[in-house]
Specification:
With about 270 residues, the protein is mainly alpha-helical. About 95% of the residues lie in helices and about 0% in strands.
């Protein structure tokens, strides 16, 4: 049972803590200040109504006092007139009534004095409360303005923080783009070097055909073999075409001078 009570107490504490935290997030100090100011205005209004009620009561008593005083004066005049007319009994009756009204007037005067004191007291309290409410209003507006400025500053800072984070991302993107550009430039340079060296000729000309390459190599080898056999045959016959041709031309050249020598006299004679 004690363990269950402990668990329930702990759950209640956690719930209250979470509720307070949620309320703190929901609470706007400006709204709270406005509500407090409104409450004080309502209290001031009640005090003012109280002062007005006391003043009304005091005025009512004052009116009653005036009426009683008028009756007292009337009875006093009547008593004098009765005495002048020799009606002492009537004068006595008037004076007795006058005494009753004077007692009533005294009570009203006492009540009037109390109400006046209460009115002055409430008026002073109302003035003090009004001064406090006015001071609270000024302070409230100051706090609200400060809070609003702080809130705006916080939002601006949050915006700048977001901008800083975005600018950091932009900087990283630029760095990655520059790295990629350098990689592409290096790749392009390497490809140019490979193409200059002929290593990429097959890539440029098309896919490599190993069968055709082997046939081409065999054809080139057969041509070389045929040329080699021809040269061997010429050497074996002892008179290669190009060499024999050269020797015939040499013999003709040697015979030609003699012929030319034989012809020279004729040419000379002709001349």
């Amino acid at each position: 049972m004690a363990a269950l009570m402990g668990v329930m107490k702990r759950v209640s504490t956690i719930f209250r803590a979470k509720a307070n935290k949620a309320l703190d997030r929901m609470e706007d100090p400006r709204e709270t200040l406005d509500y407090s100011y409104q409450t004080q205005l309502e209290l001031l209004q009640k005090v003012r109504r109280g002062v007005a009620d006391v003043a009304t009561s005091c005025k009512r008593v004052e009116i009653q006092m005036n009426q009683v005083q008028q009756n007292i004066d009337k009875l006093d005049r009547q008593a004098r007139e009765a005495l002048a007319a020799g009606r002492e009994d009537l004068a006595r009756e008037a004076l007795q009534r006058k005494a009753g009204l004077q007692s009533q007037y005294a009570d009203l005067a006492s009540q009037h004095s109390s109400l006046q004191a209460e009115q002055e007291k409430l008026t002073a309290a109302s003035q003090r409360l009004q001064a406090k409410v006015e001071a609270f209003r000024v302070k409230k507006e100051t706090i609200k303005a400060t809070y609003t400025a702080a809130e705006a500053t916080t939002r601006i800072n949050e915006v700048f923080t977001g901008i800083s984070e975005e600018m950091s991302d932009v900087g990283l993107a630029i760095q990655r783009a520059e790295d990629k550009t350098e990689q592409m430039k290096a790749r392009a340079g390497a490809i140019d070097e490979l193409m200059a060296s002929g290593a990429l000729s097959d890539v440029v000309s098309g896919p490599h055909d190993d069968i055709q390459a082997e046939l081409d190599r065999m054809g080139a080898g057969a041509s070389v073999d045929l040329e080699l056999e021809r040269m061997k045959a010429e050497i074996a016959s002892g008179a290669p075409k190009e060499i024999a041709g050269g020797a015939g031309q040499a013999g003709a050249a040697q015979a030609d001078p003699a012929g030319r020598g034989a012809e020279q006299p004729g040419q000379g004679d002709g001349q």
